[in-house]
Design a protein that fits this description.
Length: 288
């Protein structure tokens, strides 16, 4: 009997020990699970935070990029390409107008070359491009004609004086008022581009009047479309008189070089605008 009791006691102790051990094991496993779970939660939380941060940064970057693109687009639209500072003092971009007149001694010494049998002269440096333009026009079946080119100081003085005289006679104005009116048609000496050998008046051989009818001629249409390719611009365009200070002259072409001619024509600018200079003002404003 005592044997049996002893065995039972032993077995109860064993069972107790086993239970205690199982409890410890369970506890340890539980603890381990908790640690692993907590770690996992923490890592995934960090990961989520990182992802959110990254998404935010990407969003900000995208916004900045879009804003930049919009600004660039605007600049392209609003801000024209103007003459580079390094170009502004080049001989072919010389600005001569009523706000930037030359006195007689300012007029650059121009080496001129005679163009044709009529004896018209231009700055020798534009000769090659001018000839190429006329050649191309003829090849296209056009026949434009030069009717004025380089003018020496004295020539411009007599043209201007003659015009004043005619206005006084025809309209009964005094000399001062006649001079203002004359200057809208014939540039006052020192303000004409013809004096620097870079300007030409070109008319159609089918219509030689210096008036707005020129722009209807095929020759003039050809020049307006193609002259920029050879470095020339129509210098006093329609609706730009308040900037150029000269009435619309669909015959007066000015050499500005090929790069400037292309940029000016493409952007519908005047030389004043291209050089960032002040507008001259409407030439007819002070007429009485
Ligand atoms: Zn002219």
């Amino acid at each position: 009997m005592s044997d049996i009791r002893q065995r039972r006691r032993r077995s109860r102790r064993n069972i107790k020990r086993i239970r205690q051990r199982n409890r410890r094991v369970l506890l340890s496993v539980g603890l381990l699970c908790f640690i692993v779970w907590a770690g996992f939660v923490n890592v995934s939380k960090q990961k989520k935070e990182q992802e959110a941060e990254q998404a935010y940064a990407e969003q900000q970057e995208k916004k900045a990029r879009e804003a930049k693109e919009v600004k660039a687009g605007k600049e392209e639209k609003d801000e024209p390409v103007l003459a580079a500072e390094s170009e502004k003092n080049k001989w072919y971009l010389k600005l001569v107008n009523a706000k930037n007149p030359m006195i007689q001694t300012d007029v650059p010494e121009v080496e001129t070359e005679t163009l044709d049998s009529e004896g018209y002269q231009v700055d020798a440096r534009i000769m090659k491009d001018l000839e190429a333009m006329f050649e191309a026009a003829r090849a296209d079946g056009r026949s434009p004609m030069i009717c004025s080119a380089f003018r020496a100081w004295d020539t411009q003085v007599s043209l201007y004086q003659n015009k004043i005289g005619r206005v006084m006679n025809e309209e009964g104005l005094n000399e001062e008022d006649a001079a203002i009116k004359a200057a809208t048609v014939v540039a006052k000496p020192g303000t004409s581009e013809h004096q620097i050998g870079l300007a030409l008046d070109i008319v159609s051989s089918e219509y030689t009047n210096l008036d707005e009818g020129q722009m209807e001629t095929e020759d003039q249409k050809w020049l307006m479309e193609n002259s920029w390719k050879y470095g020339f611009i129509l210098r006093y365009p329609l609706d730009k008189s308040d900037i150029t200070g000269v009435i619309f002259e669909p015959w007066h072409y000015r050499y500005v070089g090929k790069k400037a001619a292309k940029e000016i024509t493409e952007q519908n600018l005047t030389l004043e605008e291209y050089l960032g200079e002040e507008p001259v003002g409407d030439p007819t404003e002070n007429i009485k």
